[in-house]
Amino acid sequence: MAEAPAPRQGILSLAIKDKNALYQAYMPFVTNGGLFIPTDREYAMGQEVFMLLNLMEEPERLPIAGKVIWKTPVGSSGYRICGIGVQFSDQDGGLARNKIETYLAGALGSDRSTHTM
């Protein structure tokens, strides 16, 4: 029996205004990079999503296509924030990943915990 497609959730909008918040959300261990997005909406693993990212003081929002590869459900142990991890597609040629990693230069090797690891 085929599974019904997940309901369309529209465009995710995310604003990250400081380096610490960006470090907490970024997933460098994912191919093409990815971001953790706090949300209590239901998403399916593998679901395609589209987000508009306001990054630091950038005047333009970054359009990012991706798919859900991580879920932290409501009520997870360890007092983790509920949300989804979105792996960036390679449609933008790495633009979003490069911008984020430039902001995080020097911090990516840190052993501080993030929202996902």
Q: For the largest sheet, list the strands in their spatial order.
A: 1-3-4-5-2
H/E element sequence = EHEEEEH
Number of strands: 5
- Structure classification: alpha+beta
Number of helices: 2
Could you tell me the mean pLDDT?
Answer: 83
Percent in helix: 10-25%
Query: Strand count, sense and closure of the main sheet?
Result: 5 strands, mixed
Uncertain runs: none
Report on the structure:
The structure is a single chain. With 117 residues, the protein is of the alpha+beta class. 14% of the residues lie in helices and 31% in strands. The chain is built from two helices and five strands. It has a five-stranded mixed beta sheet with strand order 1-3-4-5-2. It is globular and about 35 Å long. The protein starts with 10 loop residues before the first strand and ends in a 14-residue tail after the last helix.
SSE blueprint and pairings:
Elements: E1 11-16, H1 19-25, E2 34-38, E3 48-55, E4 62-72, E5 83-88, H2 95-103
Parallel strand pairs: 1-3
Antiparallel strand pairs: 2-5, 3-4, 4-5
Relevant terms:
2 helices; 31% strand; alpha+beta; 117 residues; globular; five-stranded mixed sheet
In short:
This protein has 117 residues and is of the alpha+beta class.
